[in-house]
Amino acid sequence: MKYVDEYRDEAAARKFAHAIALITTKPWTIMEICGGQTHTIVKFGIDELLPPSITLVHGPGCPVCVTPLELIEKAIEIASIPEVIFCSFGDMLRVPGADTDLLGIKSKGGDVRIVYSPLDAVRLAEENPDRKVVFFAVGFETTAPANAMAVYIAHQKGIDNFSLLVSHVLVPPAIEAILASPKNRVQAFLAAGHVCTVMGYTEYEPIALRYNVPIVVTAFEPLDILQGLYMAVKQLEEGRAEVENQYTRSVRREGNREAQRIIQEIFEVRPRKWRGVGEIPRSGFGLKRRYAKYDAELQFDLTRRDIEEPQECHSGLVLQGVLKPNQCPAFGNRCTPEHPLGATMVSSEGACAAYYRYRSRQSERKSTTGGSSDFNSNPDEKSNSGGDVA
Q1: N or C terminus: fewer CB in 10 A for the chain?
Q2: Measured between alpha carbons, how far is 319 from 309 in angstroms, rounded to an integer?
Q3: Is the confidence at residue 65, as pLDDT, over 60?
Q4: Where are the domains of the chain?
């Protein structure tokens, strides 16, 4: 397949891994900040191609996974109202709340629908003026332009029965929170290429300078990630701490100005609680006051609540890069995709789901073939748990 197979060439990948080994003289810990990158690393065994002195840890790069339990409960409460059509991307339906999930509400008769765009929800609101239509606006900066456009179009058309339940989170503040933590062991980052396609990477430059940490904007295929790792290790070995762009075929330093303009028109920066991490200042988007009538939390008068996470679930430590998924005692037994304790086992971008799906199969293959790479797998293979919302 043109433009996919080229980035999955096993011989080229092994050359990259060899080049990384040649320049590595010290132990380094590097975090990828995108769930799509995590799945590529685990599926293709990229971490097992690297020298033992390089440790890859997985960050809070899955917006489904970091949506707080309190907001999941608010979604469930709204979706339970008979006159509401609740719209969402597929992943969110199986994220566990305190007692049930959105799929459970749907099974009891709630009108919960999977859509592929927030504009689908606007159309539903236009076609059902006697119903209230709510879209669960989850994602990093990547999905913010489409969600902002949905509000803009609803406003222009005078559609008053449409609203967003907003759970937008921002990447740079999360990186700073990780670096400022006393538990931090990350020495370099692979930044999410799709986020930077929208926002550019100027916000990362003061972080690299302040914390003396290399940040490499990286795409999602195996050769992309290996090149990003090579660039990060080269900086570490040379004592540099800069922002570099591996994903030059898509990302510009300034990002997409038009996308940024619609975001700035509709949203403002606010504090945001991250599931398993806690509240991070200025780490999310919320609707501006002039668009408050499209805010589902205000429209349905939902009060703030604090809900305890299941103590058995260690997804917070996974999201902070402190634990690998298979180091959690519940992984694979008490916590599976069919019966998840946390969102990291549900989402198509969750680190726990990646380990559950690919790592056990790799272990079996290692014992029989002596290798763990998955470069010859079907490139069209998809996750069963839903769409990419990052």
Answers
A1: N
A2: 14
A3: yes
A4: 64-170+255-299
